[in-house]
Amino acid sequence: PKLADMAAVLEIDSDIEEVSVKPAPPKPPAPKPSAPAACISLDDDDDDDNVAPSKSKPPPAPPKVWSATSAPLVAASEALPDLNKGHLVVLTGLQNAAHLNGRRGVVERKDPRPAAKGRWEVEVRLDGGRLEIKSLKRENIKTVTRTDKVACKAWLAAEKTHKADRQKLQDQEEEWRIKRCVEAKCGKLALKTPTLELLHRLKPADALSVLDKVDGSHITDIDEFVSTQARLSLGVSESDDEEVKEPESKRVKS
Question: What percentage of the chain carries pLDDT values higher than 90?
């Protein structure tokens, strides 16, 4: 009986083993997440070699022309990774400052103020070559990636135009500053009207150079000295001044 019981047990065990649930087949490995597209910064050269080429050659797309009202050229990143100084970006999704949507910018740094946690300081490109630093939320900053060659070229082309406008603005500001210096110096000197007219005919930088020669000098007749220096800079003489004035006087008499 004991042997029979043992045989029964063996049969039961054998049955359990046969009908036991087979393990599920192994799941295929999950695809590895693709690395985020590399952002482009102003430190990179704007040559085509620095923009990652695609493996296949798609048909050429019409060039994009940048404008402040155009839609952002890049999509938002799901993970919203941190930014680095110099990254090229586009502003989007702003509610209280909607006029800045579509504006280009360059990342400066993470806003260090405790009350501005999660914000980034961006140097925004405005019209006329002007620049302004704005503190923006990360979700309102879209990066320009290397994989989008058209977007990169459009951004960099717009940057060249902005740089040219910026240079013009700086030249104008410098000229205005020099003009104010000239006017201030003329106001401190007892200069006659003909001498002032000569100075006004000079470029502001040249007029300032003439007036700077008076500072710290022991010139007795400042008006004569400034008048002579102005004529030398203009390449004219006193007789030339008389020839210019004579037709004017005749026109007044007539």
Answer: 54
What is the C-alpha separation between 131 and 116, in angstroms, rounded? 21
Q: Are 230 and 202 in contact (CB under 8 A)?
A: yes
The amino acid occupying position 179 is: K
Q: Report d(CA 74, CA 131) in Å as an integer.
A: 22
CB within 8 A of 67, min separation 6: which ones?
102
Contact status, residue 126 vs residue 95, Cβ threshold 8 Å: no
The pTM of the full predicted model, rounded to 2 decimals, is 0.62
Contact between 105 and 89 (Cβ < 8 Å): yes
Per mean pLDDT, which range of 64-68, 101-105, 128-132, 218-222 is the poorest?
64-68
> Measured between alpha carbons, how far is 104 from 106 in angstroms, rounded to an integer?
7
Q: How far apart are CA 99 and CA 103, in angstroms?
A: 8
- The Cα 49–Cα 189 span in angstroms is 60
User: Which residues lie across from 106 on neighbouring strands?
Assistant: 88, 123
Tell me how far apart the alpha carbons of residues 206 and 211 are, in angstroms, rounded to a whole number.
9
Q: What six digits make up the tokens of 19? A: 């009908």
72-95 tens-digit pLDDT? 444 444 567 889 999 999 999 999
